[in-house]
Amino acid sequence: MPAKPQLRMNKADKMITFIYYKDLAKGIDFYGNILGFSLAIDQGWCKIYQISDSGYLGVVDEQRGMQNWHADKTVQICIRVPEVMPWYEYCLGLELPNQSELFVSDELKIKAFVFDDPEGYQVEFQESTANDLLL
Predict the structure, then answer these.
(1) Which terminal residue of the chain has fewer beta carbons within 10 Å of its beta carbon, N or C?
(2) Would you identify the CATH topology of the domain 70-135?
């Protein structure tokens, strides 16, 4: 077996999740303008937004990417924030599709809500309700 490459402190530099859009302009507007994430890498037909220090979301034109758009979305985009209530109130004002009520999960130790982005990916904003969690 070959030797495994070493990672600094057992961590990669970045983690990028790619989602595939039929209408790339809608994804650019939603993640860049409406939610306000910074465009970190512009590859033309793929826009990569910085969501956290090392977490990124790539919005890809499905005509050019390595995957195809699918009606069934099997990825949830979860965004951990220090305080979820301001995001909940902001998103209520946007009248986003399928936005849930704010809920608390004692089991997961979170307060959260979900909604669908313009092409049907579920987005969750959450805050920790426990000070002892590393996440």
Answers:
(1) N
(2) 2,3-Dihydroxybiphenyl 1,2-Dioxygenase; domain 1 (3.10.180)
